[in-house]
């Protein structure tokens, strides 16, 4: 993206001068969001910068793999986050509302460095390090550290590697470039147990969560006119199984393997009763555009939104949009 290089230099200049930096990531952080935040924090701390990091969730619930990311135990609660930071950085946020309880701090920040790779992005931030072609926000953090001329401490390497591995689907998605692999290789030069990290990220499932995914598979439905396969889980399902919603995040990766459908969707009911819709495409649909029509966002081939309707009405609406959507072009990411 043109201009991203200049913004990268501006961000590096601001961070080079800062004595204190506040960093936030989006609610319900994935490994890219949390990894980018903690990775940048480790880079800045190694340079003597005072860093405060927070996740906007209240109450804070972090997935089990988060304990393998250095710095995760030093997150502060939202109320301890600076109310009007001189320099604030956000990681992996497609829009300012993804900051939830930390949004007021971002709005009052003097300098707001916005690091993100989502295609749908609402333009927040005084400095925008936004590259929709980047594999991950963690890759952008490595570019930023390089622009700073900063060393990557091992603590940072672990966090950034976790984000790159997960956001590239273990180096399989189209945004995985030779540069992504070179950056990952650089991170792997550091002494950390990448195999154990991968197990924590991908092979750490609760048996109740597996059973819940089995239930979701029995509800699998194909909508041929929309090239869509989908399923759903309700709050009652989650409660009955005693499973946290995040434990079923990989359900989408299971149903997207259906060879007959271009689009896969999982509807998961939230605490407030609404359904979170996660979508993936094999390449024939621009899901960022579809999600934006429902007030959501994401990437071309992976996007989501929240629906106030039940599963049937949500899918009816989605089928209508998918059928009306023009075929996606193969460019971009
Ligand atoms: Mn990401």
Draw up the topology in text.
Layout: H1 4-17, E1 20-25, H2 31-46, E2 50-54, E3 87-91, H3 103-108, E4 111-116, E5 127-130, H4 137-148, H5 154-167, H6 178-188, H7 194-202, H8 207-218, E6 221-223, E7 228-233, H9 235-241, H10 251-255, E8 263-269, E9 275-281, H11 287-293, E10 297-298, E11 302-307, H12 311-324
Helix pairs in contact: 1-4, 2-4, 2-5, 4-5, 5-6, 5-7
Bound molecules: manganese (II) ion (MN).
CATH topology of the largest domain: inorganic pyrophosphatase (n-terminal core)
* CA-based shape: globular
- Sequence stretches where pLDDT stays below 50 over 5 or more residues: none
Instruction: Indicate the CATH class of the largest domain.
Output: Alpha Beta
The level of helicity is 25-40%
| CATH homologous superfamily designation of the largest domain | inorganic pyrophosphatase (n-terminal core)
Strand order of the largest sheet: 6-7-8-9-11-10
* Overall tally of domains: 2
Strand content: 15-25%
Largest sheet: 6 strands, mixed
Quickly count the helices.
12
* Distance linking N and C termini: 12 Å
Bound ligands, named by name, code or SMILES: manganese (II) ion
Structural class: alpha/beta
* Mean of all residue-level pLDDT scores: 94
In sequence order, what are the helices and strands, one letter per element? HEHEEHEEHHHHHEEHHEEHEEH
Number of β-strand runs: 11
**What's the Cα radius of gyration?**
19 Å
Going by CATH, the architecture of the largest domain would be Alpha-Beta Complex
């Amino acid at each position: 993206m043109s201009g991203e290089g200049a913004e990268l230099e501006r961000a590096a200049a601001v961070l080079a001068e800062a004595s204190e930096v506040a960093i936030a990531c989006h609610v319900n952080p994935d490994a890219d969001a949390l990894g980018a935040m903690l990775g940048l924090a480790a880079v800045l701390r190694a340079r003597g910068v005072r860093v405060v990091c927070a996740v906007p969730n209240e109450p804070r619930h972090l997935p089990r793999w988060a304990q393998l990311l250095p710095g995760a135990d030093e997150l502060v609660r939202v109320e301890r986050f600076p109310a009007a930071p001189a320099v604030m950085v956000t990681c992996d946020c497609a829009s300012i509302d993804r900051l939830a309880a930390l949004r007021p701090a971002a709005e009052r920040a003097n300098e707001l460095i916005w690091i993100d790779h989502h295609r749908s992005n609402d333009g927040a931030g005084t400095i925008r390090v936004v590259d929709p072609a980047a594999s991950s926000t963690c890759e952008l953090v490595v570019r930023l550290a390089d622009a700073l001329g900063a060393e990557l401490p091992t603590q940072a390497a672990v966090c950034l590697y976790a984000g790159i591995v997960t956001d590239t689907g273990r180096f399989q998605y189209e945004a995985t470039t030779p540069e992504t692999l070179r950056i990952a290789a650089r991170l792997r030069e550091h002494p950390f147990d990448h195999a154990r990290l991968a197990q924590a990220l991908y092979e750490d499932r609760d048996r109740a969560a597996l059973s819940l995914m089995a239930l979701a598979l029995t509800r699998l439905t194909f909508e041929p006119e929309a090239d869509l396969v989908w399923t759903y889980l309700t709050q009652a399902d989650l409660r009955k199984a005693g499973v946290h919603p995040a434990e079923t995040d990989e359900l989408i990766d299971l149903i997207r393997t259906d060879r007959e459908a271009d689009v896969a969707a999982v509807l998961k009911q939230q605490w407030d009763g609404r359904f979170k819709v996660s979508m993936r495409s094999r390449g024939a649909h621009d899901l960022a555009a579809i999600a934006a029509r429902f007030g959501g966002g994401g990437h071309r081939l992976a996007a989501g939104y929240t629906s106030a309707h039940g599963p049937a009405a949500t899918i009816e609406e989605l089928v209508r949009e998918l059928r009306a959507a023009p075929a996606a072009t193969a460019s971009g990411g």
